[in-house]
Write a sequence for this structure.
């Protein structure tokens, strides 16, 4: 029979067949043989990745002119908001009558940090800590804050979450930045766990404009990005495997996580996701909508959200506080969210590092030499006294 992959959001007949013995089936007039080792790898993938591989097999079987010998099949790197970037490489042999799939593997040549950030791909990465935990603290010096970038090791591509903790990063994060930044957020979200490793669901950046467009698709235009669908499959995979995972999501990661819950609730309403729990830091997601979806899917908040009142991402982008005072306050710190600073350190942004307290933020602004912004924070603090 021919592969049925018209509904890419569902596990089609091809995926079901490969999950089984998968020895022979026909497509485009060819018989396709899938070697046992390739089937084993396939069965270890989540639903989303299985569909990507099944599409690759269908493409191979449809090649009009057979090629002799072993060939490595590579898919083009499409813009991630339009077409998900395939992370797999298939080894195969073609004749006019048959196609043999001998291996399915992660395409390590295309994963990991890239010279051009836009070439990075959405993928799961396992990341280990260097040395003893030194979480972001209120009394840190600027030098100690700068040293946070060296606290976490090289990301290793993986196909599933096997760690106790996991994370989704925000926009404008290349893999190297996401590596240490989400480790820093993890330490703040789960301070008693003293995590030594975590799995990053890397949301790669295409640049400010395209990242904003992707966020708008998920949060405003009523669409569903491939990132959200892929994360939904990861959450479901965790649930079906029976493991428990503590998530930390930051900025656009909050939007992606919320949309993943929406996708799951729509397509798998009878499958709870209660093996997952989450903490939101400076999320661009709307809290009311997120709470409704969390109730539907069974996911619990492990701790309250951490949002700086001067951060426009949760306040304005997330539509969580659209009061006149909030808009004015948030917009006055927009340059800092965009990365502009006096000291050249990240402590000045109300968005990047975890929000500890207004007192801590005031202290860091003072250390950084931005007395004007520190005064605004001080005035806001006094309004509560």
């Amino acid at each position: 029979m021919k592969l049925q992959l018209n509904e890419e959001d569902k596990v089609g007949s091809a995926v079901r067949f490969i999950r089984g013995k998968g020895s022979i089936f026909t497509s485009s007039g060819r018989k396709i043989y899938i070697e046992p080792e390739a089937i084993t790898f396939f069965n270890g993938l989540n639903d989303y990745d299985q569909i990507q591989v099944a599409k690759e097999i269908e493409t191979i079987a449809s090649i009009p002119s057979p090629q002799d010998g072993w060939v490595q099949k590579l898919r083009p790197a499409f813009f991630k908001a339009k077409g998900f970037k395939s992370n797999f490489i298939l080894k195969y042999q073609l004749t006019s009558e048959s196609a043999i799939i001998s291996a399915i593997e992660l395409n390590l040549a295309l994963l990991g940090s890239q010279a051009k950030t836009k070439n990075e791909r959405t993928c799961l990465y396992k990341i280990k800590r260097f040395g003893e935990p030194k979480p972001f603290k209120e009394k840190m010096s600027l030098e100690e804050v700068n040293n946070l970038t060296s606290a976490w090791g090289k990301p290793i591509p993986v196909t599933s979450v096997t760690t106790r903790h996991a994370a989704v990063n925000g926009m404008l994060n290349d893999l190297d930045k996401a590596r240490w930044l989400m480790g820093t957020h993890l330490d703040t979200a789960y301070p008693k766990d003293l995590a030594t490793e975590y799995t990053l669901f890397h949301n790669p950046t295409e640049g400010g404009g395209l990242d904003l467009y992707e966020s708008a698709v998920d949060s405003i235009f009523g669409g569903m990005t491939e990132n959200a669908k892929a994360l939904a499959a990861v959450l479901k995979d965790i649930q079906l495997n029976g493991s428990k995972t503590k998530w930390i999501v930051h900025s656009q990661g909050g939007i992606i996580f919320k949309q993943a819950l929406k996708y799951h609730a729509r397509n798998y309403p009878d499958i709870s996701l209660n093996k997952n729990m989450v903490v939101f830091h400076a999320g661009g997601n709307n809290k009311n909508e997120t709470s409704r979806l969390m109730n539907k899917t069974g996911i619990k908040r492990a701790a309250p959200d951490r949002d700086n009142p001067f951060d426009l991402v949760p306040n304005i982008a997330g539509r969580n506080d659209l009061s006149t005072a909030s808009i004015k306050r948030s917009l006055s710190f927009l340059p800092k969210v965009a990365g502009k600073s006096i000291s050249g350190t990240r402590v000045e942004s109300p968005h990047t590092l975890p929000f500890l307290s207004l007192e801590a933020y005031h202290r860091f602004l003072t250390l950084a030499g931005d007395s004007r912004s520190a005064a605004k924070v001080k005035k806001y603090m006094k309004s509560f006294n």
Notes: Residues 1-13, 22-27, 68-84 have pLDDT under 50 and may be disordered. The longest strand covers residues 98-106. DSSP finds 14 helices and twelve strands in the chain. Residues 164 and 245 are 5 Å apart (CA to CA).
